[in-house]
Structure formats: structure tokens, C-alpha cells
Design goal:
With 309 residues, the chain is α+β, with helices and mostly antiparallel strands. The protein has three domains: 6-100, Arc Repressor Mutant, subunit A, CATH 1.10.10; 105-165, no CATH class; 176-291, Trna Endonuclease, Chain: A, domain 1 (3-Layer(aba) Sandwich). It is 42% helix and 15% strand. The chain is built from 14 helices and twelve strands. It has helices spanning 6-9, 12-27, 38-46, 53-62, 77-85, 92-100, 105-112, 128-134, 136-142, 158-165, 176-191, 239-247, 266-275, 285-291, and strands at residues 33-34, 66-69, 72-75, 116-118, 123-127, 149-150, 153-157, 198-199, 212-214, 221-227, 252-257, 280-283. It has a five-stranded mixed beta sheet, sandwiched between helices. The protein has a four-stranded antiparallel beta sheet with strand order 4-5-7-6. Helix 2 packs across helix 5. The longest helix has 16 residues, at 12-27. 31% of the residues are buried.
């Protein structure tokens, strides 16, 4: 059982076993490898700790390279491509499958906040030590792509960086609340002068009273995100959010995403919601409440014993 983030677990040594496993599945006669014998067959071929075989198979399944069907493990169409063409591609087919599966969204987010776009060179740059300390496993995969270099700095061509931005997998679990935050994060990135200055701060600290920061302006914008499956504009501000909203009144705003449908793929839903006019942006929430444009009613009370005089 993998403990911690899957991306952190995917070291170079472990990733090197994946093509061996995919090719071993391909080498089996139809209908494939019996599920109950998978570890017995695969472990002698790929090596490493025997108890990691189950984790590796789960990762390859999520990456849509293998599937279990009728009690047998078989290759998918993408798995067949990796088995037959990954060597010729320099390992980019496997790397792309693992990135697209969302295993590195956390490392990609952290790296994206560090690197700087060199428009003339058409590449992103980041000091080598910072990059490796921030996203070591991801950088190991990125080095398989043409044009990526790790010297004194990490150099990533724009077209390779787009591979990371095309991944629509939530780094914090798929709930209505996390979807709303994710959509505001992507929405702001797509509109910012510098996308690296849009920070999803709630992933690191959920006690700030807001979820997203925009460092492109000073003072910085602070965005609290609310989401609902309904259409009516209705949400709850915690006591902490209320305080922060009034303390940072001119630069505090709420994004409201309504009509969320958890059965839809995030990328498709995001596009549909933006086309429908979301997010509803409430700028300077404290002023809107003071003017009566919004109505705020207390819905809970903190009860304690009085302090003796």
C-alpha cells in the first residue's frame, strides 16, 4: 500500500519497471495474465520488492495502460502503444500516460509557481536546485521530452509545459468544494498576466479565510470559492472568512460556482459553466453586505461559559 502522494512514490527506479511489466503482459498468450497469478508471473521479470507489484498494477490501471477483464490482466490500446513504441519515443509515451493520469498534479502546481517564462526562448526556466527540491519525480519524467534540459537551470519548452496544464485532475479529491476551488484556480490562471502568480493557497493552509491568491496586483487579491449543485446564489461564510473579508475588504472577493454536476468530467464541466456565466464574482463582499446588495444572516452561535470577573 502506497503511503503519501503517488507522485512522490514514483521514483525513477520504480518507473523503469513499468515498461517491463507492460511488455510482459503483451508477451502472454490471450487472454492475458490471470489476476490471481499476476504477482507470481510479473515479479521475477520486473524485480523490486514483491509487495509493490500490486501497487504498480493499480497505477498502470489508473494510467489506462492495463485493465482487468474476465479475471485476466490485458493491455489497453494505449498500453499496447507503450509496449511497442515507448523505446522509440524516448520514454515519452509512458511519461505522458503517468502525467495524464494526474499522479503529478501537486508537483506540477508547486513547480509552476517557481518557473519563469522566457518568451524570447519559448521556454520556462527555474533554478536547478529549487526545481529538483520541489518536483524531483516529475522532472525525471520531463527529461524524457525533447528540449527539456537540466543544467544550472531547468529548461522546459512551452509545448512540453502545456502537457502539464492539460491535465484536469483534482489534487485534493473530487468533491463539489474542491471542484469549485480548482475551477477558480484554472479560471484565474487562464486570465492572468502571469499564471505563475496565481496560487491555490488553501491546499497548503485551509485556515487563511480564502482559497486563491492573485499576486499579479498589489495589494494581492484574495478569493474565497463557494460551489453548489444548485443555481440559487447561496453560501455560508465562516466566522474566520467573515473577519478576513472585512479586514481585506477592497481586495477580497467570492467566486460562486453553481449547477455543479459530479457525473461530468471536470474539463467539460468547467467549459460549460464558464459558457453559462460562471463564476459569479462578488467583489468586496463586505461592502456588498453593508449596502444591502447581499443579505447575511447568522446561522449558528458559539456558546461558552462566561469568564469569572
Amino acid at each position: 500500500m502506497i503511503s503519501g502522494d503517488v507522485g512522490d512514490w514514483l521514483t525513477g527506479t520504480r518507473v523503469e519497471r513499468f515498461p517491463v511489466i507492460v511488455r510482459s503482459v503483451r508477451s502472454q498468450p490471450p487472454p492475458g495474465i490471470p489476476v490471481e497469478r499476476a504477482t507470481t508471473i510479473i515479479w521475477p521479470l520486473c524485480g523490486g520488492p514483491r509487495d509493490e507489484v500490486g501497487d504498480v498494477l493499480a497505477i498502470l490501471t489508473k494510467a489506462r495502460l492495463i485493465m482487468a477483464k474476465g479475471g485476466y490482466i490485458r493491455l489497453t490500446k494505449d498500453g499496447h502503444r507503450v509496449a511497442t513504441q515507448d523505446r522509440q519515443s524516448g520514454g515519452t509515451l509512458l511519461a505522458r500516460a503517468l502525467i495524464d493520469a494526474g499522479f503529478f498534479v501537486k508537483q506540477a502546481r508547486r513547480l509552476g509557481e517557481l518557473w519563469v517564462l522566457d518568451k524570447d526562448a519559448g521556454q520556462f526556466t527555474c533554478p536547478r536546485k529549487q526545481a529538483i527540491a520541489t518536483a524531483p519525480q516529475l522532472i525525471g519524467l520531463l527529461r524524457r521530452f525533447p528540449g527539456v534540459m537540466v543544467r544550472d537551470s531547468l529548461l522546459v519548452p512551452v509545448q512540453v509545459a502545456r502537457v502539464l496544464s492539460d491535465v484536469w485532475v483534482l489534487p485534493s479529491g473530487d468533491t463539489i468544494g474542491s471542484r469549485g476551488e480548482y475551477y477558480s484556480y484554472r479560471y484565474e490562471q487562464m486570465r492572468a498576466l502571469d499564471a505563475t502568480k496565481i496560487r491555490w493557497v488553501a491546499l497548503d493552509d485551509n485556515h487563511l479565510g480564502y482559497d486563491i491568491e492573485d499576486l499579479n496586483v498589489e495589494p494581492r487579491r484574495r478569493i474565497e470559492v463557494k460551489a453548489s449543485g444548485g443555481r440559487e446564489l447561496r453560501f455560508v461564510l465562516s466566522s474566520n472568512e467573515w473577519r478576513v473579508a472585512h479586514h481585506n475588504a477592497p481586495r477580497y472577493e467570492v467566486h460562486y460556482w453553481g449547477e455543479l454536476n459530479m457525473s461530468r468530467a471536470p474539463k467539460d464541466e468547467f467549459t460549460a459553466l464558464v459558457d453559462a456565466g460562471y463564476p459569479i464574482k462578488l467583489l468586496n463582499v463586505a461592502a456588498l453586505i453593508d449596502r444591502g446588495d447581499l443579505v447575511a444572516e447568522p446561522n449558528e452561535y458559539l456558546v461558552t461559559r462566561p469568564t469569572p470577573v
